[in-house]
Amino acid sequence: MLKEKFLFEKDFFKAVFSIAIPIAMQNVISFGVNAMDSVMLGKLGNIAVSGANLGGQPFFLLMIIGFGLAGGGAVLIAQYWGKGQVEVIRRVMRISMLAVLVVSVVFSLVCFFFPTQVMSMFSHEPEVVQASASYLKVLSVGFIFYSLSSNYMSSLRAVESVKMSTAVYAMSFFVNVFFNYIFIFGKFGFKAYGIVGAAMGTVIARMFEFICAVSYMYFVEKKIGYKMHCMFKMDTSLLSDYISHALPVVGNEMMWGLGSVATSMIMGRIGSTFVTANSITGVISQLAQVFIFGIANAAAVVCGKTIGSGDFKRAQKTAHTLLIMAFGFGLLSTAIVLLLRNPFLTIYDVTDRAKEAAYKMMFILAIIQPVAALDIINIVGILRGGGDTRLALMLDGGGMWIVNIPLGILTGLVLKVPPQFIFLSMRSDSFIKIIIAIRRIISGKWIRAVTRDDVI
Prior knowledge:
Layout: H1 2-5, H2 10-42, H3 46-55, H4 57-83, H5 86-113, H6 115-119, H7 126-139, H8 143-157, H9 163-185, H10 195-219, H11 239-270, H12 272-288, H13 290-308, H14 312-345, H15 352-367, H16 369-385, H17 389-414, H18 419-425, H19 429-443
């Protein structure tokens, strides 16, 4: 009975973990960068931590849109990979890369020339606005480098090539931390730039990643054979497919990203103590969920490849197995948060009020991890990989805007309840989303072949 619904094959778990582990390692590296930034800026006080957190929100929004553009392309890439059509994959990548280039140029120009106006939307505290604007202006220089290299590496993941990006991010970690240390505190004869120094170190790291990605693209990668200059070759044969199947993913990420930015704006108006506590909680959340996002990305590739090969029955069994794995890794994530929250707080030099708020918010974070794991793997992994991108859009975007944001405004700005309850209210959509998503997956209606045989 169990074998009819679940997969127990060694090759299946090998395929999942061969993708999930390198991506989890990338997430750990990203966590390390954020943690080191947070700790170093924490030495400068609440304003520096809050300024970097809010100043990074436009970049976060760009990342989310980039994830959407890359993820939308990956829906097609993974299924065409299951069919073995490499030339079509190159054409999908061409569209995806050009799209992220256009978006990143717009973001870079706006944030470089109008940083104060942008940051005034996030906070009413003049010191925080000034600090975040100075951080954002410098950070915007790296937007284009990040977007192109990240999209390229995300596309390679969809064809089960993940080792390169892990190596690049590992080296980038040391580059980022080294230059942050130099420019924040003024070491080795350099001037101390404080919060601006953190942005300078980040830009250098993004440029390093771009150089590595381009070098790998032209001199090493042979599986797909995509080259950067190919993005400027006009090819509209797959544009309608990309728009039809990828646009919901882009919309999903944009709605979720805009919702997160709106959430940050709400937090900024609650006060810098809550912003600081949420920033600290966000760092440990990232650490606790590294493997959850690894499994989610692996799920998208494995499900997409299986559907592309035409084996729908196996795809259904794959989804059932991934649901059980999601809950198990959610429980592991709970244990990580509970074990680390006390020692983690000791490394921050922030106010006692911020530490107390972060401590209570971490407890709420721990409790909801199994639900969050199911939510992430369902939407980012199973539904997206299966081509059911419209439902993913409705769940993620709708949950953020219909549930989280109104509750955040109510609890934070109207009722002014304690921080941990505001934090919970802004994540309560997951409880609704997993019920709808699991019913959809069990029904089998999530399986949608998005490839076609008549591609010219």
